[in-house]
Amino acid sequence: MKKILLACGAAALALSIASCDSSKKSAGNDELAALGDSLSTVAGEANGSTWLMQYKQVPADERSKFSKSGIIKGVETMVLADTTDQGFLVGINIGQQLMQNLYRLEAAGVPVDRKAFMAEFKKAFNGDSVSEQQMMLLQGKFSEMSRRAMQLAEEKKEAAAAETPEAKANIEAGEKYITAAKAEDPAIVTTPSGLNYKVVKEGEGAQVGAKGRAVVNYKGKLVDGTEFDAGEGARFSTANVIPGFAEGLAMMQKGGVYTLIIPADLGYGSKSMGTIPPMSTLIFEVEVVDVEPAE
Question: Collapsing DSSP states into helix, strand and coil, what is residue 284?
Answer without folding.
Answer: strand
